[in-house]
Design goal:
The protein is α/β, with parallel strands linked by helices. The chain has 12 helices and 13 strands. The strands form 3 sheets. Strands 1-11-7-8-6-5 form a 6-stranded mixed sheet. Strands 2, 3, 4, 9 and 10 form a 5-stranded parallel sheet that branches. The C terminus is likely disordered.
């Protein structure tokens, strides 16, 4: 039995004397993310070759790299990628790595209704089961874009954890709906720990034209890993094979793995293993705050759950003219 709470409470203790955790994760998007963004991209031979580099060339390189250091990683694979590259998926599994769900065609998730999203989830699950005989327990939303109805859809399908939200440094348990007893484990991510922001570029498609030096990226990610280690947190790195699987970037990634492995008491493992431990350890259930903003400026913002604000805080907000983030209306009262 877990206790619902609206406040973030750190109730996770790492196992076996570990002081922090780290996971190396790979989103094997391949062609899917481009096709979902623009189906006409299928006619662009060079762009398709840029994306297919991931499963064709980069994944084998990354598997060799991970094996050299005894690291098991988590690979999030869209169903379409699994259908196009079944041998690649099987090699990932045969090497002892975890496979997670990443949509079917890396769909644009913003504003998608629950019925449509359920179809995406089921189609991706079916593809992974047909290709590799697996039923993943972990999910990462395409573009890290979760809808409020997504968690309930995941729980209905037996998922244990998600890794798409950005509101923590350690795993936590959360309710899939405000009044639901169904929960998931969240293993948060961070845009600073995604290779897309550092390296991704294709003319007219993505990126600013600046491709960062792997040496700079290695320095930044090392600092992030050391900080998470010092805080007792969970360092989750998100890489894309078609980006970080290219030679110099893979060299920097290998150097990072060596540094992370060398941190005293750092548990380097899969997200699935981290989620299984968090499921046993996390006794508090976070209920995420939702906002309803009908119209500005005269309609108050509604917040769910509705949390009482101390009178002193109410008085402060009344003087300041109100704070939308707190759910206090312009008259100084709770909306």
């Amino acid at each position: 039995m877990t206790t619902p709470t609206n406040s973030r409470r750190d109730d996770l203790v790492w196992p076996n004397g570990y002081r922090a955790a780290a996971a190396f994760t790979f989103d094997v998007d391949a062609e899917s993310c481009m096709l979902a963004h623009d189906p006409a991209a299928a006619q662009r031979m060079s762009l398709m070759s840029h994306q297919s580099y991931g499963p064709r060339v980069a994944v084998p390189r990354l598997l060799r790299l991970l094996e050299r250091h005894g690291v098991h990683a988590t690979f999030f694979i869209p169903g379409f990628t699994a259908e196009c590259y079944p041998d690649t998926v099987r090699k990932i599994i045969d090497a002892g790595h975890e496979v997670g769900h990443h949509g079917y065609l890396h769909e644009q998730m913003r504003g998608v209704d629950a019925t449509t999203e359920a179809c995406y989830l089921d189609r991706g699950l079916d593809a992974l089961e047909r290709v590799a005989g697996i039923r993943p327990v972990g999910y990462r939303a395409p573009w890290w874009e979760m809808n409020w109805h997504t968690p309930a859809l995941l729980a209905e399908r037996g998922f244990v954890y998600d890794s798409s939200l950005l509101d923590g440094d350690k795993p936590y348990r959360f309710a899939v709906e405000p009044d639901s007893t169904d929960t998931l484990i969240e293993i948060p991510v961070d845009w600073a720990l995604d290779d897309w922001e550092q390296y991704a570029f294709y003319p007219g498609v993505t990126g600013s034209g600046v491709i960062e030096s792997p040496a700079k990226v290695l320095e930044m990610w090392t600092l992030e890993a050391e900080a998470h280690h010092a805080e007792g947190g969970c360092f989750v790195l998100t890489n894309h094979p078609f980006i970080s699987g290219r030679p110099s970037k893979a060299v920097a990634l290998e150097q990072l793995i060596e540094r992370v492995n060398a941190l005293d008491g750092m548990w380097v493992t899969t997200l699935g293993a981290i989620a299984a431990h968090a499921r046993q350890t996390c006794s508090k259930t976070l209920v995420h705050t939702r906002f309803e903003v009908p119209a500005f400026p005269d309609v108050p913002i509604r917040r769910t759950p509705d949390i009482a604000v101390p009178q002193r805080e109410l008085a402060t907000h009344a003087v300041d003219g109100g704070d939308a983030a707190s759910g206090v209306d312009l008259d100084g009262g709770l909306a």
